[in-house]
Structures are given as structure tokens and as C-alpha cells.
């Protein structure tokens, strides 16, 4: 046992207020990770855990990849920090240009942030400022979708549609409304890939256009595939319809690609997989393979250009001390090198069928009411235990961890998103283990 393992004895008094965690439960029975490499974590006691979640949907190239590790070490020794407000450093420009090379056509500008939440709030602010810059300041409304997850800052929880993340924190940003979510087990249970039913749900945006007057709406934000709410895949034709309505009314469409970016769906970005383009999109997580916090907002060239009119001066009064941090940019460039050398941004496509068959093989196990998949994302939903909703999801997570597989849960849904280096035998191992656990689940 290494020295760091000793403190597990006394976690109940630890100063660490853990995020999105049941602190008291966890500190009584911790699940600790001490080391990682490739597809695996190891606990402080040396137990190997197969990572079926890419950490938290972010370690797309697998853990502790040497090129990324070396790049961070080298950059930390060469220049630890440099400002990007009215100053610059070459590596930030280099990384932005590298990102523009893999972005969809017409998205050649990226604004750096430090997280998905910051990307979301930055994108919402850019959308509002864009309309103002081009003489439509009355467009102040922001539209989200029920069950959407857009991080935890005030903009993100306001447009977000997860009740627990909203209800404790007051009224949020003014002028926000939501369209209906697309999750419909009664019609689409056990869909393989894109569900067939529900295109008409996109018309809900027309309802809000009529209610608020479309000329007051600045932007609509959705995840191309919702991740944190439990892998909710939009039905066939839905994103096309949403795009049409936005274009018709001059509303910006923002994709939150914090999870779907960087190869998760088999293309560099989710928009390229679904074939429907947004006007802005947010990223984070896989941008640096999770190794250094970083995010970015990509915008259409025309949006950037709208800010570049008028006399010289600061065009956007927005930015973070750590926007374009040297360590993050170094990690990002090495991450892109790794993705590209190993074909990881497309690899989900070749594994998708195997992944789909493996996860759907769990149909029929006790309490399972839906299984869904898209790219290298998947979810298994359980019927809620009477009187204890969410407990089956939590217990499944704990038991999977005890059985050597790291998963994620939201309420009664278990979610999966392995590093994109996953091999077929590891996919089989994930779902064989989960299958065994589900047979024991109360
Ligand atoms: C779609 C989406 N947006 C935003 C976020 C927030 O990202 P972060 O936790 O880096 O702030 C997440 C995180 O899971 C996400 O899935």
C-alpha cells in the first residue's frame, strides 16, 4: 500500500467538500483512484478498474499518454503562465489554428475558456453580444431544453433543464425558456442509434416563437446528444427541424459539444456526425484529453466578423485569466497529435456496431426498461425502485466499481463512454461485468 492510501482511514473529517457527491456516504465508504494508464485506473490498494467512462467523458485517448505528459512537463518548465489580455504567446495561436483545421467548414475561430460551464456561459454571452453588434439588441431571450445539461454556472443552469441543478439557486438568468425534451421510452425504447419517433418535438420551438415573438429570441442551445441526463439521442429529423426553425426566425443555434466533441460520435465533432450545423458550439473535456482544464467556443466566421467591424478597440468584453493557458495549450496540441496519429477522432465509427450489440445484449435483465447508444456513448435505464428513485442507479455504480468497472449514473440510468482506444474485448468485459451486477441489483 503506498503512503497516499493511509488517509483513507480518516476521510470522514476531510476538508474536501466534494462536488456532485453524497459527501457523507462517500467519506464513510470511499471509492478512491490513485493511478491511471491507458484504459485503466488503479485504486490505492492496487485494484485495477476498467474505465468505461473516460474519467468523466473526457479522457478520450486513454490515461497518461506519454506525448501529452511530456508536453505538459516541458511547457511547465519553459513558461508556466502568460496573459492573453492584450498580450499573447505563440502556443495559444498554434493550438487555435490546429483546432480550426478539424472544425467543420466555416468555423475558423475559437474563444478559449477553462471548462464546459465557462464555454456555455461564454457562448450565451457571445450570442447576445452578436445580435447587439449587428443592430438587433432586442434579441435577449435564451432557449434551452428540458433535461439539457449545460454545466453549473448561472447561464448554464438557467438554460439547463435538470431540476436538481436549478431549484436550489434562485431565479437564474432572466428571459430564459425551454422546449420539451425528446426522451420517449413509450415509443422509442431499445432504439439502436437514432430513435425513429419524435421529430415533431422540434416544433415546440415554434410555440415559444409565437409566445415570446421570435424577434426577441437570441439563441437556442441543445446538446446534439444529451450526455449527463442519461444519453438522450434526438429522434430522426429533429435537429434538421430545429435548424430550419432557427434559420427561419434568425435565431442562433448553439450546440453544446462538451461531451460529443473530439471523437465521441465517430467524427471530430458531433455536428459532423449528425449532419446538421449549428452557429456556435461549445467544447471542453476531450480538448486536452482531460489532462489540463480547458474549453473553447467555436463560432461561425460570420459571427466573428460581426465583432470585427467599427473602430479598433476591445471587441468582446469577456475572457478569463486562464483563457489559452500555456499548459492547457501544450496539452491540447499533444492531444490532437495523439488523436490524429491514432485515428481516434474517427475510431468510434468502426466500433459502434460492436458497442451497440454488446450493450443491447443486456436487454431483459431485471429492472432494465431501456437501452440506447450512439457512437461510443450508451446508457441503460432502470425502472425506479418504488419510494427510492435513483437508488438503483447509485447502487449499480457502486457495485460496478466493486466489480472493477468505472461507470456514471444519473438517477436510474447508468451511462458509458469509454476512452476511444477501447478494444472489443474490453467492451465485452464492461458489459459482462455490468450484466452480472444487474442480476444482483435489488
Ligand atoms: C454538455 C455539457 N455541457 C457542459 C458541461 C460542463 O462542463 P464542466 O464540468 O467542465 O464545467 C458538461 C459536463 O459534463 C456537459 O456534459
Task: Break the fold down into its secondary structure elements and pairings.
Blueprint: H1 23-28, E1 35-37, E2 40-42, E3 48-51, H2 54-57, H3 66-78, H4 90-102, E4 109-113, H5 116-133, E5 141-145, H6 154-159, H7 163-166, E6 176-179, H8 185-188, H9 204-212, E7 217-222, H10 238-249, E8 252-256, H11 270-274, E9 280-283, E10 295-299, H12 301-307, H13 326-341, H14 344-360, E11 368-374, E12 377-382, H15 391-402, E13 405-406, E14 408-410, E15 413-416, H16 424-440
Parallel strand pairs: 3-13, 5-6, 5-7, 7-8, 8-9
Antiparallel strand pairs: 1-2, 2-3, 4-10, 9-10, 11-12, 12-15, 14-15
Helix pairs in contact: 3-13, 4-13, 14-16
Question: Would you write up a description of this structure?
Answer:
It contains 16 helices and 15 strands. The protein is α/β, with parallel strands linked by helices and 442 residues long. It has two domains: 129 residues, Aspartate Aminotransferase, domain 1 (Alpha-Beta Complex), CATH 3.90.1150.10; 275 residues, Aspartate Aminotransferase, domain 2 (3-Layer(aba) Sandwich). The protein is globular and about 65 Å long. The structure holds pyridoxal-5'-phosphate. The site of pyridoxal-5'-phosphate (PLP) has 14 residues, from α5.
Radius of gyration: 22 Å
Helix content: 25-40%
The number of helices is 16
Structural class: alpha/beta
**And the CATH topology of the largest domain?**
Aspartate Aminotransferase, domain 2
- Average predicted confidence as pLDDT: 97
Poorly predicted parts = none
Tertiary shape = globular
- Count of discrete structural domains: 2
- Give the oligomeric state of the chains in this entry, treating copies of one chain as homo and distinct chains as hetero: single chain
Q: What percent of residues are in strands?
A: 5-15%
What is the count of β-strands? 15
The CATH superfamily of the largest domain is: Type I PLP-dependent aspartate aminotransferase-like (Major domain)
Ligand inventory: pyridoxal-5'-phosphate
Give the distance, in angstroms, between the N- and C-terminal Cα atoms.
Answer: 33 Å
